[in-house]
From TrEMBL, chain B:
CC terms in the record's Gene Ontology section: plasma membrane
Name used for this protein in its record: ABC transmembrane type-1 domain-containing protein
Main location: membrane
ABC transmembrane type-1 domain ranges (all copies): 89-278, 372-563
Spans traversing the lipid bilayer: 28-46, 147-170, 228-248, 260-277, 315-332, 376-397, 542-562
One record GO biological process: transmembrane transport
Record bears the keyword Membrane: yes
Membrane-topology annotation of the record: Multi-pass membrane protein
Protein family (similarity comment): Belongs to the binding-protein-dependent transport system permease family.
Keywords: Cell membrane, Membrane, Transmembrane, Transmembrane helix, Transport
């Protein structure tokens, strides 16, 4: 082989640069409606659910809809704030955070279970913790290891911490620092596995996990069910209609409200959401969450 | 990840003038003081990190570790998933390549501006002020971890491949600018001055006088940076940047251990190949090991340059660089348009407005100080783990020298292979993943963070030290042996002190980096400033985020200055 001279090298370089310059001039793709959701469960489940949701949204609006998966709760709020996504399935806290970052955003719909949502405190059976009836029973967690779900989860962190405070249990009284498992599935697995003696989970995810037979009930038991509070909802950016045409938000809302448990296709979607139907909601439904979030320093 | 704040220590040969002669007793005293200081630091760290009266190991979590280990031989081989892994591998490689390219552009331009040789004669004061500002800005830029850069950039650019490229290019570029500037200044400026005197334009004079002399070093450094960028590109997965790191995060979240193992295998293959290729090119263009680059030592002056010129493989590697960058650009769909759009400017303005003015976290200065101490504790304990790994694995990881024959040689070679593979595993798996594993067996807090960082740093430190050991000059040992000194004694006396010296130098150097890396294990729930940072980021409490970043900048600078002093005290 002939050794490469400097000139060949330079010529080759120039030619490739020129070619690449031609290649990148392509027109930008048409605007897509981006949707996302807080990753509160096993990503595999999310990947079954939300692409299907995106498809239904696309049918209802006649737009191209793309589901953008993210790895943590905060990322959904961030993407919503900068307009990478226009519609998001938020938790109570993330929704309130997003509305603080995007004035004018509106909570449009929630599941039938979300107006009166509950968290469960669960414990490993070897921990010696016993079920109790009143919020004061949470004091019994003192001296035990404990894990929340995601740092900004409403049912896995905010409300559990709120009730612990109500019971007069300081975070410092737990054994070691509380953990943050990242999601409700992870919390259940860590408590069942014994990594943590106790934890707080979303009741709907717990019920679904128990129903699917994915948790060994000889290893983990429910201690207490919290009083109800408002949680998950679909949140829309204020510029949704302006960007994608009048009636977009209405079309999405109609689709959600019209999901029918009796229709096989709808039922499949509703089952993945763990609900029977969707109902209207409004921003003020989350005022209490907002107060608690401010109290606990999770909202500025 | 391998950012370094320190200016490379001046080579001993030029440090002589003006220095007072030091007596042997003085040296001993200094060393003893340094030793005591280190011992005190260790005792303090252990005391702070270990919960009083509590257990260390979380026995309950060990069952999950068993699950993890049991699946190691059953990686997921599902064809659909393998496709995902292949794509992710290409994306990680492409992002690392583009990030390195960006860093080198910043490094070359910044390095020229910072170098004295590029400016002829006395500098007018605006230039001097400008350079001072640039120097300060570069220090600040590289003190912020790539992962934190990525989190900020996502807030401005959205889910765009530019996020990953810039998150790598900015801190690495700031680092490269310093190294390049020093490299340029180390070149004798005679040729440049004669060219200028002969009437050559500044640009062409610089190109012809500086580049030929420094090109091998710059090239070698660039490849070293590429290895670092590859590791960092994986870490960025936590921030949602596509590639192997992202897939690893997702598979860990769904506790799909089979997939995790497949991804780890892909990671190892990629990192192993890139390092093999890189070390081949590096040893070809100039005998500079990454150990030298890490502490800024330059061996080209010692006549170490390969006499045979560039090998064919190196020439082809260089010829492939530009097409590879183009391919990477196309693969990730990079478009610089996002940088200048009105939306970007608006969001950047908003982010900066949010970040300023800085504020203290809840609990005030005390909370912040506590977090700083936790961070230092974590870094100290991590270095203990890393040094232990180095001491146990390092001696086996040096390339066997030729000379021995037969089964003894094969055994030595097998040991070498296993040791190198172990170190590769330790450093290729991102510390964020090690932290998730450590959290299964340890209670949340400083310890799992320290263990995670220690395993990762051990993989890097072990390699640096082993490479330094394997290139060590053995003439003194031979001379002693020839003079009739027993084998063992001559080996201990001649090899011992320089080996220990290498170990200390690199340990101090990695400690500085380790302090900065604590930011990323905080993101997955360890302790210290990183924990505070991720907590406040999750609450969108930007003023406190700035406060925490300023605190970590101060810690980095303090550790760097102390490290340099300690190194000098030990060397003197």
């Amino acid at each position: 082989m002939k050794p490469m001279t400097r000139r060949t090298l330079l010529l080759g370089t120039g030619a490739t640069l020129l070619l690449s310059a031609c290649g990148t001039g392509a027109a930008s793709e048409t605007r897509q409606l981006g949707i996302s959701a807080i990753p509160d469960q096993d990503p595999e489940l999310l990947n079954r659910l939300y692409p299907a949701v995106a498809e239904r949204f696309a049918d209802a609006t006649g737009l191209k809809v793309a589901y953008r998966p993210v790895t943590d709760y905060t990322a959904v709020v961030r993407a919503f704030e900068i307009g990478d996504i226009h519609l998001a399935w938020m938790g109570g806290l993330t929704g309130v955070q997003a509305r603080a970052r995007v004035p004018g955003a509106t909570a449009v719909a929630q599941r039938d279970i979300d107006a009166d949502f509950h968290s469960l405190f669960i414990a490993h059976t070897g921990s010696g913790l016993k079920p109790f009836e009143k919020v004061d029973g949470l004091r019994g967690l003192a001296g035990h290891t404990f894990t929340y779900g995601s740092e900004t989860s409403t049912s896995g962190r905010l409300m559990p911490q709120y009730f612990m405070r109500q019971a007069g249990l300081e975070q410092g009284e737990l054994r070691g620092k509380p953990g943050f498992s990242g999601s409700h599935d992870a919390t259940i697995e860590l408590v069942a596995g014994g990594s943590f003696e106790a934890g707080a989970v979303n009741k709907q995810v717990w019920d679904a996990t128990v129903e699917a037979g994915e948790v060994d009930l000889s290893k983990v038991a429910v201690l207490w069910r919290t009083p109800g509070y408002a949680d998950y909802h679909w949140l829309a950016r204020p510029d949704l209609d302006k960007t994608f045409g009048d009636g977009t938000q209405e079309n999405v809302l109609d689709l959600l409200l019209g999901l029918d448990d009796q229709n096989a296709e709808d039922a499949k979607l509703l089952k993945l959401f763990g609900a029977k139907s969707f109902v209207r909601t409004k921003n003020s439904a989350y005022d209490r969450i907002e107060d608690v979030a401010r109290d606990l320093g999770l909202l500025k | 990840m391998t950012l370094q704040l320190d200016a490379p220590p001046t080579p001993p040969t030029v440090s002589a003038p003006g220095r007072k002669p030091v007596s042997g007793r003085r040296i001993l005293l200094r060393r003893l003081t340094a030793l005591l200081a280190v011992a005190g630091l260790l005792a303090w760290a252990v005391d702070r990190a270990v919960p009083s009266g509590g257990e260390l190991v979380n026995r309950g979590g060990l069952a999950l570790l068993d699950d993890l280990a049991a699946t190691v031989l059953r990686p997921s081989l599902d064809p659909g998933f393998l496709g995902v892994v292949l794509e992710a591998t290409a994306t990680t490689l492409a992002l690392a390549l583009l990030g390195t390219a960006g860093a080198l552009v910043i490094g070359l331009v910044g390095g020229l501006v910072l170098s004295d040789v590029a400016w002829s004669g006395a500098l007018p004061w605006p230039v001097r002020v400008g350079r001072l500002v640039l120097r300060g800005a570069l220090v600040a830029v590289r003190s912020v971890h790539e992962l934190v850069w990525a989190l900020f950039l996502v807030s401005v650019l959205g889910l765009d491949p530019l996020v990953a490229v810039l998150a790598l290019a900015l801190p690495f570029g700031a680092q490269s600018a310093q190294v390049f500037g020093e490299t340029f200044d180390a070149v004798p400026d005679g040729p440049l001055r004669s060219l200028r005197a002969a009437g050559a334009k500044r640009g062409s004079a610089l190109a012809y006088a500086l580049l030929p002399g420094t090109a091998p070093l710059l090239l070698s450094y660039s490849f070293y940076r590429f290895e670092c960028a590859l590791r960092s590109a994986v870490v960025l997965g936590v921030a949602g940047v596509g590639g192997l790191g992202f897939e690893l995060t997702v598979s860990l979240q769904s506790r799909n251990w089979g997939e995790v193992w497949t991804l780890v295998a892909a990671l190892l293959a990629l990192a192993g190949l890139v390092e093999l290729w890189s070390s081949r090119v590096r040893s070809d263009v100039a005998v500079v090991t990454c150990a030298d680059w890490s502490v800024g030592r330059d061996r080209s002056g010692g006549g170490g340059r390969s006499p045979r010129g560039l090998s064919r493989s190196t020439r082809w590697s260089l010829a492939l660089v530009v097409p590879a960058i183009v391919a990477a650009w196309w693969w990730v769909g990079l478009s610089p348009a996002g940088l200048v759009s009105a939306r970007t400017q608006e969001r950047a303005g908003r982010l900066l407005g949010d970040l300023w003015p800085p504020a203290l976290p809840e609990g005030g200065l005390r909370a912040l100080t506590g977090a700083v101490l936790d961070t230092v504790t974590m870094a100290v304990l991590a270095m203990v783990v890393a040094v232990l790994i180095t001491l146990v694995v390092g001696p086996w990881a040096g390339r066997p020298r030729a000379g021995r024959r037969g089964p003894a040689d094969w055994g030595r070679r097998a040991g070498w292979g296993i040791a190198r593979l172990l170190l590769l595993v330790l450093r290729s798996i991102p510390p964020t993943v090690w932290a998730v594993v450590a959290l299964l067996g340890l209670f949340p807090g400083v310890l799992p963070g320290a263990l995670a960082l220690g395993l990762y740093t051990g993989g890097i430190l072990g390699r640096l030290v082993a490479e330094a050991w394997e290139t060590m000059d053995l003439t003194p040992r031979e001379s002693l042996r020839n003079a009739g000194v027993p084998r063992v004694v001559s080996a201990v006396v001649s090899v011992g002190p320089p080996s220990a010296n290498h170990l200390v130098t690199y340990t101090l150097y990695r400690f500085e980096i380790c302090v900065r890396d604590t930011a990323i294990v905080g993101v997955v729930g360890a302790a210290g400033l990183g924990r505070l940072l991720s907590e406040r980021l999750a609450a969108f409490d930007f003023p406190v985020v700035t406060g925490v970043l300023l605190a970590s900048l101060l810690v980095s600078l303090a550790v760097e200055v102390l490290g340099r002093r300690l190194r000098r005290a030990l060397r003197a």
